[in-house]
Specification:
Blueprint lengths: L2 E3 L2 E3 L2 E2 L2 H23 L4 E7 L3 H16 L3 E7 L5 H13 L5 E4 L9 H7 L11 H10 L6 H14 L6 E5 L6 H10 L3 E5 L6 H5 L4 E4 L17 E4 L3 E5 L2 E5 L4 H4 L5 E2 L6 H20 L8 H5 L9
Parallel strand pairs: 3-13, 4-5, 4-6, 7-8, 7-9, 9-10, 10-13
Antiparallel strand pairs: 1-2, 11-12
Helix pairs in contact: 1-10, 2-10, 5-7, 6-7, 6-10
This protein binds 5,10-Methenyltetrahydrofolate and magnesium ion.
Magnesium ion binds next to loops.
Protein name: Bifunctional protein FolD
Pathway: One-carbon metabolism; tetrahydrofolate interconversion
Family: Belongs to the tetrahydrofolate dehydrogenase/cyclohydrolase family.
Length: about 325
Amino acid sequence: MPHLVGDKRVDGKLIDGKAMAAKLREAIGEQVAHLHTHHQVTPGLAVVLVGEDPASQVYVRNKARQAGEVGMQSFEHRLDASVSEQALLALIDQLNQDPAVNGILVQLPLPDHIAETRIIQAIAPAKDVDGFHPINVGQVAIDGQGMTPCTPLGCKLLLEHQLGDLSGQHAVVLGRSNIVGKPMANLLLQANCTVTVAHSRTHDLPAICRQADILVVAVGRPGMVKRDWIKPGAVLIDVGINRIEEDDRTRLTGDIDFQSVQDLAGAITPVPGGVGPMTIACLLLNTLQASYQQLNLPFPDDLAERAWQPQAATTP
Ligand SMILES: Nc1nc(=O)c2c([nH]1)NC[C@@H]1CN(c3ccc(C(=O)N[C@@H](CCC(=O)O)C(=O)O)cc3)C=[N+]21
Ligand SMILES: [Mg+2]
């Protein structure tokens, strides 16, 4: 039953990332059609996969399929795990120069003999739809204007949809990776939150998390966040996607102990069906934005917001 604790609603509302991602892809698809009709351009996304990791193969396939569904062209490059760093750099150089390619994503992690930082730095910043290049990391930190990493961007959009203005909220980010934790903290700071970044060396994690109006968890530890870590009414974003082998099948579970906390939360993302689908939708959003910017066209920044308004999004 929904009730109030102080002025906070405590009703464990589910944040339906899957449905929101579908709406966002629909709005992206309209914008892709607009580019095609008025500028004779089809946005292109190149996805590079090195090696045979089964989970990575699933993600790469999903990315390519969803790019196709919104009318983008997708280019898949699968390389053997033994490929040399030099050969991978040569492919990236070719993609950088290819005018049909507006966005480039190199699936991480890469095999140990390849230096990830060197590969990321080789991607043209304007095509870096992951937002991992130092130029984009710096630009996001300075004014939020760089290409923004897909998972933190998806989390921010979910939070703003749930809460509206985030100003003054205490956001605790659990995890400090370059892919999620650090860029998430920067985005929340940009949105005028008070931000605490906590991690594996933090003293008394439960006490820190209990201060959070917004809690974003990205640590990769199934069920780590428990009921007594939660301030009643807090909005909980679970970035963890952990594969648990159970009764001969694989179950996906998050970093938050969903069952134990749900009724205490103001709202919470499920796993699966929360952050994951939004990550891929934001990859398509970044690819669209990269295409606009490469054409020197103004990008409609309120695309996501409009996608979730009751009436269908309209193409300008
Ligand atoms: N350069 C790079 N960029 C990435 O964005 C990137 C990467 N490397 N390496 C791997 C991680 C992982 N990742 C996910 C994307 C979508 C889901 C997703 O859609 N998850 C579904 C479930 C999918 C399933 O069934 O496995 C869900 O949560 O509902 C999950 C994980 C992007 N990654
Ligand atoms: Mg950590």
